[in-house]
Write a structure and sequence with these properties.
The complex is a heterodimer of chains A (about 260) and B (about 800). Chain A is of the alpha+beta class. Chain A is about 30% helix and about 25% strand. By secondary structure, chain B is α+β, with helices and mostly antiparallel strands. Chain B is built from 19 helices and 28 strands. Chain B is globular. The chains are: A alpha+beta (about 260), B alpha+beta (about 800). The complex binds flavin-adenine dinucleotide.
């Protein structure tokens, strides 16, 4: 790891002012620190955002759950309010990595990083989330741009994520047995009037499967997607799972999610 | 005094470990120490055109940079194979040189080419990045099965073949196969594993210019053996000027038997720069450069009669040695593998042929079980397949071929002193509710799941011995063990053992043994190991030998103490030595009430006189002091055995395999501490189940390790396992005074075939290779569905 400057920002304004093309925000550090240790990333400045009070905490209103960007996974998984409003979101958080990761990793870090196999991006898509930054509000559907790519501009700081409370929802993941990231994770959410089937792990970026969403909007039952043959040509293929296996898992996990709703 | 042997004595080492007071090599910091970083080859196979250290030398804080040239100039020796194997045609095995720092060629990713020594770790790292190595990259050989057809890796070693070894009689086997009603054959792969000890390797080397002594603190399972090898072959220092200390070591599983490049380089360099040097592996270095395990490709056949009697067995195996042959690299796929490949069965004719090949991968050596997991996997997968093809119940088929008379002369090498395989099988079946399986299978089926049951009956040969026998077969050292029992004048006891403890609980079990033998409270007994300056010699810990060999050395040394105590008591109490009996720490003159405690005797031995009298308690010929040594060379291996039964449930939609039940019924002879044995069984099972379902070391065709971190190498976690159902049958070994057998490796030996037999049973007999990952199983489920549809 190369030398770097450590800053602790007291508010969003200071954090974004300190940001440059060779800086990173330091939230849980669960991605940033290992990549620096392995020499995959080098930064001149790390801007710690954990001490910005405004960025932590969970608020529930009648329609939505708003989670501060620096809120740790363990806080989401343990939150009684989240468990009551969107139980699938708390169980998603409970299934991330391992206790060490959950005790440090944050929701903001996770979605800013937009790892193709991360869990939270699927929750954002399925639950029609709004990403609140220090500059603007971004709809989830426009936030996740591609592999490790988001709509965030340099120095733009996520402050909170606002999830719409669905009628029913469930997240089902087939974890990578080693890292426990998603090989395929499917988040099904039934809202008034429509259904989202957000898929992570399968392609280079999280997406909403239109075909399954449509079928389920017509008839919200796993039988309506049973046997669906998905196109695997754009799916990831690696030593843990081929594209064909992933395509099959997307349907299987979606069915499981619908059954669990 | 109640006997401690057999009871669940709490571990004496736990206070230290659980309160963070363990002292591992990385905890050791010496005055004025420097830090080493190794520059390693990023290529699997390359020749080194040029190595330029000029820039790196100018980097801040650099003390020294040493390369393969300096190693060669100083005539520092290379790493060695400890066991010479002869091929079937009588030629000796072929081993390449393996210098601690490569000078001309590198042969696996991670092969070190230089060491950078600096004032701080960060500076060493920074400078290491500035070492410029110009490689000519060559085509790598990485596949075990195809290694013999690849480019020649080491000059002069044709077909990359180290040896082509045969054990058994091909002609007799042919005759047996000619008589067979049926031949069952199987092609299997024993997947490559990475040991992953919790503590990565580390060493701290120090040089004292005044005494000209090198001290090496290192993560070793066998410090004396390391000293011997570093001295005799490494030419680092003569043995009396080299002290090797292995303090607390956080797991080894075989990976810390070897003397490694870093041990030799740091010891040699510490003397060169006249300063202490510290090196601690990063986890990625452990993945790349610790020895790996297993990696066999096997074709095996079993000749049977139609009613299920075994007639003959063939085993043709290619074993991957990796880039170089290391300490137990050559014996693991031969004498530790071949003899056990006929399993617990009476098979009149058998042979094992092993071709050991070099590849451009990390060296492969002994890993928990070493050879016996591979052997057991071969025979037990074959027997399970035979039961399916013959339509004979898998337990009945096994029982039919078990020996019932002991000693049992096993087909290829061993004479098994004791055991009761039928009793073990019956008990395991009961524990596992074997009878109730069909009902459970139906329940699973009703949920849309596939359920399978798998059985393994194993025996294994551990506590490898006697020395004359193993040395006649090519072993470079004798495999005895030593112990020294020392009394203090005031009655406490220090036991020095040559068996290093790195998870085996010697501090407790060995103290239990000594406490019983000497009648001294366990609190007053200390077990010391791991320092070449503290004890005479030790062969170390591997192959489940600590208790069956090291433990017996302690018993024997204690017996010598008691003998001397009897003589001294007789003299003190004016009795005949033959009339003195020893029990519960007291020497009693029979038919009298005269006695001395062992503490009084020890005191008298060290303070042999009485005020105002010219009188010694010591009989003529006995010297003062109370200390005895034993070098114990067993008469035979020890042969644990048992039956394991696993049940799995498969979700055909996801291919997920859930291990529902695991039953292990083992025969370890007499059990010293049931709690410790449970720990050993659990750990072994976790590794064995890990091999079957999760772990796999994978190289790509260019020789890059694809599974070089925990993001890709699946280390099993607690939630991957069911509650283990553990039981024992105890037939005492007849070859040692405690009646004990080894227990450290059984789980890792028996679990892979047990789990895989269950998986394959659930899949209707379809073969899948280890690890049975979701995708492989999912594919097999799809095939099963297709073939069921066709049949219907
Ligand atoms: C062993 C392991 C297993 C894991 N398993 C899983 C898993 O199963 N599922 C899963 O989803 N994830 C998993 N993760 C990822 C983990 O959950 C973290 O969410 C992730 O590492 C990023 O969060 P962080 O808070 O640690 O971010 P950091 O590492 O601190 O930052 C990551 C990136 O996000 C940026 N960033 C952080 N916060 C903000 C913000 N508020 N605004 C703008 N940019 C920001 C930083 O600049 C940086 O570029 C795993 C990680 C590890 C190490």
């Amino acid at each position: 790891m190369k030398d770097f400057n450590y800053h602790s920002a007291k508010d969003s304004k200071e954090a974004s002012k300190l940001a440059s093309s060779s800086s990173a925000f330091l939230a849980g550090g669960m991605t940033t620190i290992p990549s620096m240790k392995l020499g995959l990333a080098t930064y001149k400045d790390l801007i710690d955002i954990k001490n910005i009070k405004k960025l932590s905490g969970i608020k529930v209103s009648g329609k939505s759950v708003t989670i501060g960007a620096a809120t740790k996974h363990v806080e989401v998984s343990n939150s009684k309010d989240v468990k009551k409003a969107i139980p699938s979101l708390s169980s998603l958080a409970e299934g991330i990595g391992d206790p060490q990761v959950r005790n440090r990793g944050t929701i903001g870090g996770s979605i800013a990083n937009n790892d193709p196999s991360a869990d939270y991006p699927s929750a954002c898509i399925a639950l029609n989330a709004t990403i609140h930054t220090n500059e603007r509000k971004i709809e989830a559907a426009k936030f996740f741009k591609g592999m490790f790519e988001t709509a965030l501009k340099k120095g733009e700081l996520i402050e909170a994520i606002e999830f719409q409370i669905p009628e029913k929802s469930s997240y089902q993941k087939h974890p990578n047995p080693a890292s426990r990231y998603a090989i395929v994770g499917v988040y099904v959410a039934k809202h008034k009037g429509d259904v989202n089937v957000a898929v992570t792990g399968a392609k280079s970026c999280v997406y909403n499967d239109k075909e399954m969403s449509k079928a389920l909007a017509g008839n919200f039952s796993s039988s309506s997607i049973d046997g669906m043959d998905l196109d695997s040509s754009e799916m990831n293929s690696d030593m843990h799972a081929s594209a064909d296996f992933r395509a099959s898992l997307v349907v299987t996990q979606a069915k499981k999610a619908v059954d669990a709703c | 005094m109640a006997s401690l042997v057999g009871s669940r004595v709490e571990r004496k080492e736990d206070k230290r470990f659980l309160t963070g007071k363990g002292r591992y090599t990385a905890d050791i910091n010496l005055a004025n120490q420097t830090y080493a970083i190794f520059v390693r080859s990023p290529h699997a196979r390359a020749s080194i055109n040029k190595l330029n250290i000029d820039k790196a030398l100018k980097s801040s804080g650099v003390v020294s940079i040493l390369t393969g040239k300096e190693i060669a100039d100083d005539k520092i020796g290379g790493l060695i194979a400890g066991w010479a194997i002869r091929s079937e045609d009588g030629t000796e095995m072929k081993c390449p040189g393996n210098p601690p720092l490569a000078k001309d060629n590198v042969n696996f990713v991670g092969d070190p080419v230089a060491v950078v020594i600096a004032e701080s770790l960060a500076e060493a790292k920074e400078a290491a990045e500035k070492v410029e190595v110009d490689y000519k990259v060559l085509k790598a050989v990485t596949s075990t099965a195809d290694a013999m057809n690849g480019d020649t890796i080491h000059e002069g070693i044709d077909k990359n073949l180290c040896f082509d070894w045969l054990l058994g009689d091909r002609q007799k086997v042919k005759e047996a196969f000619d008589k067979a009603d049926k031949v069952i054959s199987i092609d299997i792969i024993n997947n490559r594993l990475i040991p992953n000890a919790m503590e990565p390797r580390a060493c701290v080397a120090d040089y004292n210019a005044a005494s000209e002594e090198i001290t090496l603190y290192t993560t070793s399972q066998n410090p004396h053996l390391s000293r011997l090898i570093m001295s005799a072959f490494g030419n680092v220092a003569p043995e009396h000027k080299l002290r090797v200390v292995a303090p607390d070591v956080g797991g080894g599983f075989g990976s810390k038997i070897n003397v490694y490049n870093e041990d030799i380089v740091c010891s040699w360099a510490a003397k060169k720069i006249n300063r202490a040097i510290k090196w601690v592996a990063e986890r990625s270095e452990s993945f790349l450069t610790d020895i790996h395990g297993r990696d066999h490709v096997t074709h095996a056949e079993l000749a049977v009669t139609k009613d299920g009697k075994f007639l003959g067995f063939k085993n043709e195996t290619i074993a991957n040695l990796g880039a170089y042959a290391r300490v137990f690299g050559t014996v693991t796929p031969t004498y530790l593998f071949g003899p056990c490949a006929t399993g617990v069965y009476e098979i009149p004719a058998a042979y094992t042929n092993v071709k050991a090949v070099y590849t451009n991968t990390a060296p492969v050596d002994a890993y928990r079980g070493a050879g016996r997991p591979e052997a057991t996997y071969t025979i037990e997968r074959l027997v399970e397949k035979a039961s399916m093809e013959l339509g004979i119940d898998k337990t009945e088929l096994r029982i039919k071929n078990f020996p019932t008379v002991f000693p049992f002369k096993q087909t290829l090498v061993h004479t098994v002193d004791s055991g009761d395989y039928v009793a073990g099988m019956e008990k395991a079946k009961q524990m596992a509710d074997y009878k109730g399986f069909e009902a459970r299978r139906k329940e699973s089926e009703a949920k849309g799941k596939l359920r399978g049951i798998g059985v393994t009956s194993y025996f294994e040969a551990c506590g490898i011995a006697p020395s004359a026998a193993v040395m006649s077969l090519g072993c470079g050292v004798g495999l005895w063990e030593s112990a020294e029992v020392r009394f203090n004048p005031t009655g406490q006891v220090t036991v020095y053992t040559g068996s290093h403890s790195h998870g085996q609980s010697h501090q407790t079990t060995f103290a239990q043994i000594a406490a019983d033998e000497l009648g001294v409270p366990i609190e007053n007994i200390d077990i010391v190991h791991g320092d070449t300056d503290k004890g005479t010699f030790g062969m170390g810990t591997y192959g489940s030998r600590s208790l069956a060999v090291g433990g017996i050395a302690i018993v024997n040394a204690c017996k010598k103490i008691v003998e001397k105590g009897k003589r001294v008591t007789a003299k003190m109490l004016e009795a005949n030595p033959e009339d003195v009996e020893f029990k519960d720490g007291e020497f009693i003159v029979s038919k009298s009430n005269k006695k001395k405690t062992i503490g009084e005797v020890a005191f008298a031995c060290y303070l042999p006189g009485v005020r105002d009298e010219m009188k010694s308690p010591l009989p003529e010929g006995d010297e003062p002091g109370l200390k005895e040594t034993s070098f114990y060379d067993p008469s035979n291996f020890s042969f644990p055995a048992g039956t394991h039964i696993a049940e799995v449930e498969i979700d055909p939609e996801t291919g997920n395999v859930k291990l529902e039940k695991y039953t292990a019924c083992d025969d370890f002879g007499r059990i010293i501490n049931p709690m410790v044995v449970e720990g050993q069984v659990h750990g072994g099972l976790a590794q064995g189940i890990g091999q079957a379902l999760y772990e796999n070391a994978e190289y790509d065709e260019t020789g890059q390790l694809m599974t070089g971190s925990y993001m890709d190498y699946t280390m099993p976690r607690a939630d991957n396992f069911p509650e283990f159902n553990i039981g024992y049958t105890c037939t005492h070994a007849t070859t040692n005074p405690l009646g004990v057998k080894g227990c450290g490796e059984a789980g890792a030996i028996a679990a892979p075939p047990t789990v895989m037999n269950a998986v394959i049973d659930a899949l209707g007999g379809q073969e899948v290779t280890m690890p049975a990952t979701a995708e492989k199983v999912w594919k097999a489920c799809k095939n099963l569905k297709k073939s069921n549809a066709k049949a219907a």
